[in-house]
Design a protein that fits this description.
Strand content of chain A: over 45%
Number of strands of chain B: 11
Structural class of chain B: mainly beta
Structural class of chain A: mainly beta
Oligomer: heterodimer
Helix content of chain A: under 10%
Number of helices of chain B: 0
Order of helices and strands of chain B: EEEEEEEEEEE
Strand content of chain B: over 45%
Shape of chain A: globular
Largest sheet of chain A: 6 strands, mixed
Radius of gyration of chain A: 13 Å
Distance between the termini of chain A: 41 Å
């Protein structure tokens, strides 16, 4: 089955700096890659997603890139703010909605 | 729109008892619901996929006789943890997928914190 690896597990940046989180997946049939932000004790919130027919997608300060050949995708957050501090999860899906999550990255943005 | 609720939001039960968690799609019909378990500081682990009117599909390593899933209607799925033990203490989150074709149509519930004493 699908396996998703996520790095780093923790990331600390200064406010205004960029943050990059990387994920790799194993199943070449995966075609949908969402990113979630989860605050302590809350539900995951979708922040951006990308499909396998697209290489890059951007939404204001957040961007995601996908390399299908290498089977990895990355989340880029620019101009980080303290409110970006949370745990971020990548996920992969082969369709039908079943999501396999990465291990998570705890992002800390220091003012 | 696209709201998913869970009940209860938290529950404490004694070891050996059973507890039922409900997942409801409030404003859309969910043909498929997913149940995840999340231990502290860990990722969401998919437990099972629940399709309305049919048996749930469990992930490898998840005991189907311990975690009973019922998806009796297009708006309700339940997860029953039977004979709960302290190691079952976790955050249980459901998600519901609507009938829209877009993959993005999956919405998470707020989660249920289960503590088994």
């Amino acid at each position: 089955g699908e396996n998703v690896e996520q790095h780093p597990s923790t990331l600390s940046v200064q406010e205004g700096d960029s943050a990059v989180i990387k994920c790799t997946y194993s199943d070449s049939a995966s075609n949908y890659f969402p990113w979630y932000k989860q605050e302590l004790g809350k539900r995951p919130q979708l922040i951006i997603d990308i499909r396998s027919n697209v290489g890059e997608k951007k939404d204001q300060r957040i961007a995601v890139t996908l390399n299908k050949t290498a089977k990895h995708f990355s989340l880029h957050i620019t101009e980080t703010q303290p409110e970006d501090s949370a745990v971020y999860f990548c996920a992969a899906s082969t369709g039908g909605g079943k999501l396999i999550f990465g291990q998570g990255t705890e992002l800390s943005v220091k003012p | 729109g696209a709201v998913v609720s869970q009940h209860p939001s938290w529950v404490i039960c004694k070891s050996g008892t059973s507890v039922k968690i409900e997942c409801r799609s409030l404003d859309f019909q969910a043909t498929t619901m997913f149940w995840y378990r999340q231990f502290p500081k860990q990722s969401l682990m998919l437990m099972a996929t629940s399709n309305e009117g049919s048996k749930a599909t469990y992930e490898q390593g998840v005991e189907k006789d311990k975690f009973l899933i019922n998806h009796a209607s297009l708006t309700l799925s339940t997860l029953t943890v039977t004979s709960a033990h302290p190691e079952d203490s976790s955050f249980y989150i459901c998600s519901a997928k609507g009938t829209e074709k877009r993959e993005r149509g999956q919405y998470f519930g707020p989660g249920t914190r289960l503590t088994v004493t």
